[in-house]
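Let's sit down with a protein and look at its sequence and fold side by side. Once you have written the record down, we can walk along the chain together.
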Amino acid sequence: MNVVIDEGSGFCFGVKRAIATLEEELKKHSTVYCVGDIVHNEREIERLQSSGLKIIDTTELAQLHNSAVLFRAHGEPPSSYAHVSRNNLSLTDATCPVVLRLQQRIRDAWQKMQPIDGQIVLFGKKGHAEVIGLMGQTDNKCILLENDSQIDLVAPNKPTEVFAQTTKDPQQYEQLVSKIKQHVNNTVVAHNTICRQMADRAEHLRTFAAAHNIILFVGGAKSSNSKVLFEICKNINPNSHFLTNEDDVENVINSSQMLTTNASIGIFGATSTPLWLMERVKEKVETILKK
């Protein structure tokens, strides 16, 4: 059997940058506090915690003083920066540059909309770290849509600008924008703010999933990106299986048609999945198949 890890999957640029930045900071400080999981992958978090990473929430950030703090790739709302300034914290800002630009664009659009009674619509997942940071640019007054069934939350008579969380599915965003334009009888300006790397990855995954008999999709249980990409994968290849780590491999093999002669097995990782974890999955598959 042919077992292949997709070379274009795994950590995106922003996550790679954030983790590399954290590892440099851990060389300088015995403890570095990160607001929320630096990456939505449980195994990678465990690895970094063993080196001194401490995960805190915004309530704990407000109470922290004179410590080293890192903002992860997902970005933070203005209130988090205020805590840093007020509490004499040493901040390393590892917010993804793509997210930082999107925060600025939403902030500028919000200011532009105020004099004309306009509205900002954001396509994203409620409670997601990036979305919290983006909504903070509008004092949490933008309209958050998780799907097109919530379209009635958008006022039909106001000038409207639409943005998307960087990791959303491009096709779903286009469908939502189309429905918003049908719903609103005023000006609608839609900004395609989905990360280009994410958009390209979704298209690449469709091709990769169709090219293999079986797909082992490796992702974090809490990762929004994992869920989006796996849904795309499953739609293309029904014989796709979600794994969080190499310990899941044996159950998948027992419940699938993986042992078909000459089957091709593709391993794909979400933007929050480290390469070392995909390699462990591949090794586990090959070890089992040799038995």
Remarks:
- The chain has a mean pLDDT of 93.
- Residues 33 and 68 are 6 Å apart (CA to CA).
- The longest strand covers residues 264-269.
